[in-house]
Amino acid sequence: MAAGWRGRHSHDDAIAFTQSRPVTAALRVIIRASFLVQLALGLLFLIGRATQLIPLHRLNGFVLVIAVWALAFIAARAGVNPRLVAAAVLWGLVAPVLGLIQERLLQGSFHWTVQILPLLVGFGLIGLAENLRRRLPGEKTVKAGKRDEAGRG
User: Fold this and answer.
1) Which of 48, 44, 68 is nearest to 122 (CA)?
2) Within a 13 Å sphere around the CA of 15, how many CA atoms are in the beta-carbon half?
3) d(CA 66, CA 89)
4) Most confident of 3-17, 104-118, 138-152
5) Exposed/middle/buried for 102, CB within 10 Å: 0-12, 13-18, 19+?
6) 64 or 5: which carries more pLDDT confidence?
7) Distance (Å, whole) CA 133 – CA 25
8) Which of 49, 106, 129, 131 has CB 3.0 to 4.6 Å from 44, enough for a Cys bridge?
9) Distance set, CA 113 to CA 27, 51, 117 (Å)
């Protein structure tokens, strides 16, 4: 166990990750944009508006989950902690299942709790995706209040 979980990956994996950087950048945009659409639509549904857009909400949710899974696959190939990768994959399973069955859960005066739950699950999914991305080789994180050489942050 001296080599740790990163020791199992080869130089070829590092090259494969370098070649997948444009893909991870595109996935990051897709994940963030999909989440914002999900959030806006979900809040509209919560207040009883735009329910005709529920099919779009479902489709966009599936796009979000598939993008997170693709990022998890890239992260696994790059040597990111397998537990984090597995958590993202499993959370990606929970999100659409919950979304599809939420109308049948806990009817009555406590149904609002079931309506809030997908929001929390969505934030968890985004948190896992961002965590995966930050742990990819070559990714820079900017601490609050500090800027990197390119002026980001």
Assistant:
1) 68
2) 3
3) 9
4) 104-118
5) middle
6) 64
7) 9
8) 49
9) 31, 19, 6
| The predicted structure's pLDDT at residue 3 | 43
Read off φ and ψ for residue 143, nearest 5 degrees: -75, 150
pTM metric for this prediction: 0.77
User: In 10 A of CB 86, how many CB atoms?
Assistant: 12
Q: Which helix (H) or strand (E) holds 86?
A: helix 82-101
Among candidate residues 94, 63, 77, 93, the one with its CA nearest the CA of residue 132: 77
Tell me how far apart the terminal alpha carbons of the chain are, to the nearest angstrom: 37
The length of the chain is 153
Tokens encoding 61: 């949710």
Output phi, psi for 120, to 5 deg. -65, -40
| Number of C-beta neighbours around residue 89 at 10 A | 16
